[in-house]
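Two records follow; treat each independently.
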Amino acid sequence: MATTQLKENTSIGISIRMMIVSYIISFSFHCKMPALNSPGDPLSEDYGRNLVLSELVRYWLRDKVAPDSLLVLGAKSIAPYESGFRIYRIGEDGPTGEIDYSGIQEANFNAFPGCQPIRMTIPPRTRDIITFTGSSSNRIAVHRYTNDHKLSLLEDQAGIGIPSHMAITTDGTTAYVSNGASNPNSINRYARNPFTGSLSVNNGSNYPFSVGCSPVSLRTSTRDNLVITATTSYNPLGVEVYKNFGTDSGAFASGSPYDPGTNPSSHNNLCLIESERLLYMTAGDANFPIYGFRYDENGTMTVLPNSPFAPDSGTHGPASVDNYSTSMTLDPNGKYLAYMYAISGTFYLRLLTIDVTTGNITPTDQKYSVGNAPKHLEWDGSGKFLYLVSDTGGSTNNFQLEYFKFSNDGTLSKGPNIIIAPMGGSFSVSHMKSLPIYY
């Protein structure tokens, strides 16, 4: 009886409190002086309504991204020669080890998968896979991987010269592609149909434009209509910024190419935060290998006051020297950088925070040792996982997939390694990209 009475009293108390809260809320919205009913007045009813509505609209228009798949591109360097990509399933806790698709097939000089595929590009907010087939074939193939995990080939065409890097605008309609066959190297422009995934050359009158030799990274800023590349071989070295003024007009930004005083490293490592106009790159400086810049709407760059940055004391430089690898990556929210480096023969992954106000980057205490020759660092589009490829060396000699689960508070937790293939020519990894699901 006492227990029943207590429950009733508790229920009544909750009901009374709810009524009081409701009354206060109602009073705050309805008992206003007419002069306060202004959308620009934080105390007004209209202001409150507009604020709630704008937050709801922002939430429903925001991309809902979930981890789903991981693409691993590679080739066999011993007979029978094969190449192509595998698609690994990603679960809530990371890679499951399950292979949804294994497209490793006989090498083909005249079509996908080519002979030595080098890179893949995923257009923003899509499930399309654009592959450069590499040396001897130099084709550009486009696949689409549906949400129900079905793969189809959309297009397979010859590229211009030797295509090696691609950057796509955030609306998915324009792609920029480097050509390593021209002298000096150049950047071509393609139009992309976001519905069919098809690519068609769209150079116009101001493309291609020439850049320095051996471009190692290519990015685009849709906000400011910029094309940014970094070159490492022969002069001019540094970062080149091209400003588009319209469909068929453009010019290099003032001061381009920007020479940071050291050679950009041979990695696909230009990390761009468009909203803050911040750019980070890896350099050949062994002790301070990360350079930071602020640029304006015209593409004119200024080195950050505290640049260059060191991820650790005693750093010996980036983790690998593979031109098509990646040793630094930016989280999708633009708050953290992940960087792989070497100290005395041991390789590490470290998380660094970004202060968007100053541009400074600061090492966190999130530091992990990883396998030999780590490369192809990739941040999942959902922001939940970091992936990399390394090898075990020693007596086991396997290529392996390593991954870390990432929490929004900046905490990494390492998952178990997954064996990809034995070393020794059976399947060497050329590139790796995440393929999340967008809702």
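The next record belongs to a different protein.
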Amino acid sequence: MSRRARDYDESDVRIRPNRRGSRPRTKTRPAHADATPGRVVAVDRGRFTLLVQGRTVTAMKARELGRKGVVVGDAVAVVGDVSGGPDALARIVRIEPRRSVLRRTADDVDPVERVIVANADQLAIVTALADPEPRVGMIDRCLVAAYDAGLVPLLVLTKSDLGDPQEFLAAYADLPDIRVVVTGRTDLDDGAGDGSGLHGLSDLEEHLRGLVTVFVGHSGVGKSTLVNALVPGADRATGHVNDVTGRGRHTSTSAIALRLPDDDGWIVDTPGVRSFGLAHVDPGEIITHFADLEPGTRGCPRGCSHDEPECGLDDFVASGGAGPAGAVRLASLRRLLRARAGESRD
């Protein structure tokens, strides 16, 4: 009998195995209760440098984190190889809640927020008194971002050997909670310096002690020079200012967290910026940072921007309600509001 004529049975049937297995799919993700805590100190093209139990560890983001961004300063939980060896690679499986977030946007109409640093305490706004000339608009924008993030602003003026800081500081004397440090070049042989070639560095160190401080500023203002003086061995690249444009060359290409000597705080050096967008900041919140002016808003018309002819703050300040520095304080507030509206030049 031919094969075609006979009846087929089960031995003639070939069943393809189920390649996906028999285990049902689940959305439950592992809790990773035994994950090791770490701190993100650098980010570079999808790879993260962490400090884990005193060791430097390279890690990547686990798939279950999805599109969640990991930034410098984040406290994270990691699994895998945390030995810190040259070929070791761990996985970031969890980002712990952030206590502060410093953000910026590309411009004042860009809806996309960019998180710069997480879990910082203060924002050091570095600007030169000359070469390049200080840009008030940039400083005002950084101040708005600091207040919005709940960070204490620290104004660091460099190159005081090239310009007098007093006139410049008058514009910021009455801003809320702002602290100022002035630094400049000094002769290493005259005994006035501390070996770094800078005066004022010890004052700056006092303001950084025990805190996480983010350094921001235009390229060429001396930010990397300060970082190298504060953290010996940091080797942050330094640049020069273009004689034609008056702008510096970008030398820091990525943010990095550096531990201060004696484990007495951290500084986060960020790339030099040319703009600091504030599209993420609600203009109505800025007045809340001026406790002496806020009572005067009771006399403002509905929807007042606090920077218009009918604003009640003008009469409030004129009557002395904000104290002797009221006019200066009001000018400062309106400068910040205009920065948020994109009317200040950076």
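Discussion point: The chain has a mean pLDDT of 84. How would you locate this feature using only the token line?
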